[in-house]
Backbone:
């Protein structure tokens, strides 16, 4: 068993691991990716807000953003809400292309990506992969929602929603509209329809696989989609366990991406915080100041995420996951919704709390009751 030594080992060749590696110029980086290529298997819906789309287009390529939406149509059991904006508020990311461009950039810097390699922390300062031990100065654990690194080093327990999507041929869908569907079949999340030019992604998530299948069947009937028009199916896990309070441990290991998880509690999206925090993390690695990342992470992510998690908890307790759709409609009517709110959901939470009396009696009482149940 040989030993190799490298400055930075990155476990995971997804967006989180690749983006950090692509920002490091003055250290040697080795990325381990368990699959034969980046971007696959598919598991992400790929919807981001305007801030994330702007960063991706400017820093990588505008080709990665392949569809734009200026309307969001919410369908709930008791109401329907169609929000129309003057500018685009949601964008679809071509994830395989995103990760392919990032991988090319990583390798152009002289860093290595080793494919078909599952790396596991062996002891502090070493990882084991391909029957070899690799010594590192820093370890970036970006190995996804079910992080073996986190399980090995922190003995963490995980909690997930199971997500499943189908790419289908469709007609008669507005190509500029995202469709969000709330149904009692999946009370702890929602379903979605994402038009993609003659095709669409339809998907949902739930704690139970059976509920996911039932919800997808419901949407198929809603759209009139036959089995013959289903082009592919894919899915993945959406982490709903509490994020790490301090992602840097032992002064040399940092968790990043879904291993934290750096996700929005309400939608499960993670690209916004990956793009926001990766350059900062890379800079601290290069300057030998990794311990400083904990404070930056708390300000940029953890404190806001805590507020969002409180909101999601009381929605799930009351089985009112649809409530933000109605609240957003009221905020929109008051001209209080901005494009950037779709990246930073905590802004919507703060706006909701500040104008509760103006949102209507029923929403006010429901929200107030939910807050009391959550905090006491």
Residues:
């Amino acid at each position: 068993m040989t030993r190799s030594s490298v400055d930075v080992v990155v476990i995971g060749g997804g967006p989180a691991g690749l983006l950090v590696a692509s920002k490091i110029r003055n250290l040697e980086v080795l990325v381990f990716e368990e699959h034969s290529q980046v971007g696959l298997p598919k598991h992400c819906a790929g919807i981001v807000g305007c801030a994330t789309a702007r960063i991706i287009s400017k820093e990588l390529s505008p080709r990665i953003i392949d569809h734009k939406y200026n309307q969001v149509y919410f369908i709930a059991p008791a109401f329907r809400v169609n929000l129309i904006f003057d500018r685009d508020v949601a964008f679809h990311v071509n994830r395989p292309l995103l990760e392919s461009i990032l991988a090319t950039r990583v390798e152009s810097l002289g860093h290595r990506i080793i494919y078909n390699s599952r790396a596991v922390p062996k002891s502090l300062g070493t990882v084991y992969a391909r029957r070899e031990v690799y010594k590192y100065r820093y370890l970036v654990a970006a190995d996804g929602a079910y992080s073996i690194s986190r399980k090995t080093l922190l003995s963490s327990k995980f909690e997930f929603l199971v997500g499943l999507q189908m790419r289908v041929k469709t007609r008669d869908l507005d190509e500029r509209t995202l469709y969000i569907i709330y149904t009692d079949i999946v009370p702890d999340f929602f379903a979605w329809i994402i038009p993609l030019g003659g095709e669409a992604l339809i998907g949902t998530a739930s704690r139970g696989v059976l509920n996911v299948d039932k919800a997808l069947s419901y949407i198929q009937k809603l759209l009139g989609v036959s089995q013959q028009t289903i082009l592919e199916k894919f899915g993945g896990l959406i982490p709903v366990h509490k994020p790490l309070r301090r992602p840097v441990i032992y002064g040399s290991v940092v968790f990043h991406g879904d291993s934290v998880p750096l996700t929005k509690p309400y939608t499960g999206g993670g690209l916004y915080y990956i793009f926001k925090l990766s350059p900062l993390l890379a800079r601290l690695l290069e300057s030998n100041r990794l311990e400083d990342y904990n404070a930056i992470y708390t300000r940029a992510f953890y404190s806001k995420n805590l507020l969002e998690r409180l909101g999601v908890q009381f929605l799930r307790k009351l089985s009112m996951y649809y409530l933000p759709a109605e609240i957003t409609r009221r905020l929109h009517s008051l001209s209080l919704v901005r494009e950037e709110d779709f990246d930073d959901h905590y802004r919507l939470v703060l706006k909701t709390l500040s104008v509760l009396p103006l949102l209507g009696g029923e929403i006010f009482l429901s929200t107030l009751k939910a807050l009391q149940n959550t905090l006491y």
